């Protein structure tokens, strides 16, 4: 694949055909043990892919404003479970195969070794999504999660995965991509999407654009950036409380409702918390958590979930966020109809 790049100097320009080849090559991997093998792309190819993706990602604002009449697929935490991403594409189609817009909410990496499923395949998830972002920049949007942080990846395994399957230089290149990721999105002015949650420092969504990228994240920090990546909702409290994670806050449904009312929003969709059914809905379909890594950390067969959301902008569209038809859960043994899912 040495001829896959065009251009000399400056930012690499990758032929669409070669981007498609990367996606096909990676998605064709069916063996659970692939995470134990050297990564299929070499260091030079991965670094070029990361360099091109960083440039494209920085063209998106920190708050991505999505205006679309198309369906929108929302994917939560994946944590290196590449087979779950493959199942999502098998069921809902790949980005670019139809007009759907895809929003990935972060935590692409830092999985754990799990029995027959073997080692995590975070490199496959990152490379596949970056290639798809480059190939379909107006249909694929990647947001940052709390694990897209250099210090966290050292603690939770992705740095080791890069060293084991590729090189430390590849890890450094991926960290530069993570530092360029947008932090949140707003769908048709009605739905706010992020990895963690809202913040007492966030008066209106557009304030997020004051955060300049690229930037690293201090996992022990505080403030708006930290809250977007780490905050959690709860129906059991009112106001703001310290987060048991030791970082950021837990916010009550009353806080979320007041913030949405002040900003003309109908729903918050976020990830970050493993769920027994793959998702959780608080209030009147107002705060939804989606988690896409099935049986994460051997949770007892809990499913993962991806949201297939119809056109948003009306009350009916937002209500569909929690309806059975647009919610697809998945088990490793296959899909079930309607609101169904997969287990690890």
TrEMBL record:
Keyword Manganese appears in the UniProt entry: yes
UniProt name for this protein: Serine/threonine-protein phosphatase
Pfam families membership: Metallophos (PF00149), STPPase_N (PF16891)
EC number of the protein: 3.1.3.16
Domain Serine/threonine specific protein phosphatases, first and last residues per copy: 143-148
PANTHER family xrefs: SERINE/THREONINE PROTEIN PHOSPHATASE (PTHR11668), SERINE_THREONINE-PROTEIN PHOSPHATASE (PTHR11668:SF496)
Record GO terms (molecular function): metal ion binding; protein serine/threonine phosphatase activity
Organism: Chlorella variabilis
A single Gene Ontology CC term: cytoplasm
Reactions that this protein is recorded to catalyse: O-phospho-L-threonyl-[protein] + H2O = L-threonyl-[protein] + phosphate
SUPFAM superfamilies linked: Metallo-dependent phosphatases
């Amino acid at each position: 694949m040495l001829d896959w790049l065009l251009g000399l100097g400056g930012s690499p320009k990758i032929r669409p055909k070669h981007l498609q080849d990367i996606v096909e090559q990676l998605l064709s991997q069916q063996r659970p043990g692939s995470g134990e093998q050297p990564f299929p792309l070499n260091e030079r190819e991965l670094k070029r892919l990361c360099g091109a993706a960083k440039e494209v990602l920085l063209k998106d604002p920190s708050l991505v404003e999505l205006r679309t009449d198309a369906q929108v697929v929302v994917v939560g935490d994946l944590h290196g479970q590449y087979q779950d991403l493959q199942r999502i594409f098998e069921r809902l189609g790949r980005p670019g195969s139809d007009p759907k817009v895809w929003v990935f909410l972060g935590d692409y990496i830092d999985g754990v070794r799990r029995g027959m499923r073997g080692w995590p395949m975070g490199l496959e998830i990152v490379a596949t999504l970056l290639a798809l972002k480059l190939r379909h920049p107006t249909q694929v949007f990647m947001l940052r999660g709390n694990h897209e942080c250099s210090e966290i990846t050292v603690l939770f395994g992705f740095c080791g995965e890069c060293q084991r399957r590729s090189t430390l230089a590849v890890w450094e290149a991926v960290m530069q991509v993570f530092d360029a990721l947008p932090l949140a999105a707003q769908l048709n002015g009605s739905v706010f999407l992020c990895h963690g949650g809202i913040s007492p420092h966030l008066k209106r969504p557009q304030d997020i654009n004051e955060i300049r990228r690229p930037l690293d994240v201090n996992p022990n920090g505080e403030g708006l950036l930290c809250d977007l990546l780490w905050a959690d909702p709860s129906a059991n409290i009112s106001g703001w409380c310290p987060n048991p994670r030791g970082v950021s806050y837990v916010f009550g449904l009353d806080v979320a409702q007041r913030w949405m009312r002040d900003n003309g929003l109908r729903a918050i969709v976020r990830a970050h918390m493993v769920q027994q059914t793959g998702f959780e809905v608080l209030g009147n379909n107002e705060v939804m958590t989606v988690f896409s890594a099935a049986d994460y950390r051997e949770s007892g067969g809990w499913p993962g979930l991806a949201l297939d959301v119809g056109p948003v902008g009306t009350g009916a569209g937002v209500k569909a966020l929690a309806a059975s038809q647009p919610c697809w859960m998945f088990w490793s043994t296959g899909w079930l109809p309607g609101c169904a899912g997969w287990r690890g």
